[in-house]
Amino acid sequence: MIGRLKGVLVAKQPPWIVVDVGGVGYELEAPMSTFYDLPELGREVALCTHYAVKEDTVALYAFLREDERALFRALQKVSGIGAKIALAVLSGVSVEEFSRLVQASDLAALTRIPGIGKKTAERIVIELRDRVEGLAVGVSPASGGGAADPASEAAIALQALGYKPQEVTRLVRAASVPGDRAEDIIRKALKAALR
């Protein structure tokens, strides 16, 4: 599985980009939210990626921010939503705004996103309401070395351990102290969760 790429941006023509990594050109599909923040051609870029294998295709998707990739993956777990609609969502609205719309059950705003009708919007609200809050826990861009801030890294790790997004948000906020490393925040959050 390919989870991250760092290389030179050699082509960008929405929705496709090509990144040269050690002489190999990776063709990736990306949402417009990523396109807006890409550097100029010839510059180095670090991307979070999602590798998808289906019966008849293999695809690689690119995101500048971990929260965008997490939302992309969460959206595809909703019945009736595939990669194209997930990319349309990310192209039309920020992760924070999407989270707010879902938590507010704003079906009218959700249906304004291309590819989302009323029934799909209802499914999104029902299936993602508990998951979207944790997606916008302040995940920073994958700029420079591609590392997120320690609180975001801790949040991602806690979600991977099976904690619900709302609980992750609460635990990370309570455990985070400026200057802490992700490991410190995780350790404190896990101790708090066990109390």
What distinguishing features does this structure have?
195 residues, DNA polymerase, domain 1, OB fold (Dihydrolipoamide Acetyltransferase, E2P), alpha+beta, five-stranded antiparallel beta sheet, 9 helices, single chain, Helicase, Ruva Protein, domain 3
What do you see in this structure?
The protein is an alpha+beta fold. It has 3 domains: 4-63, Nucleic acid-binding proteins (OB fold (Dihydrolipoamide Acetyltransferase, E2P), Beta Barrel), CATH 2.40.50.140; 66-135, DNA polymerase, domain 1; 150-194, Helicase, Ruva Protein, domain 3 (Orthogonal Bundle). The protein is 47% helix and 19% strand. It is built from 9 helices and 5 strands; from the N terminus they run βββαββαααααααα. It has helices at residues 32-36, 66-75, 83-92, 95-103, 107-111, 118-135, 150-160, 165-175, 182-194; strands at 4-13, 16-21, 24-29, 44-53, 58-63. Strands 3-2-1-4-5 form a 5-stranded antiparallel sheet. It is globular and about 50 Å long.
Instruction: Give the radius of gyration.
Output: 17 Å
Number of strands: 5
Q: Roughly what fraction of the amino acids lie in strands?
A: 15-25%
The total domain count is 3
Sketch the topology as an H/E string, one letter per element. EEEHEEHHHHHHHH
**CATH architecture group name of the largest domain:** Orthogonal Bundle
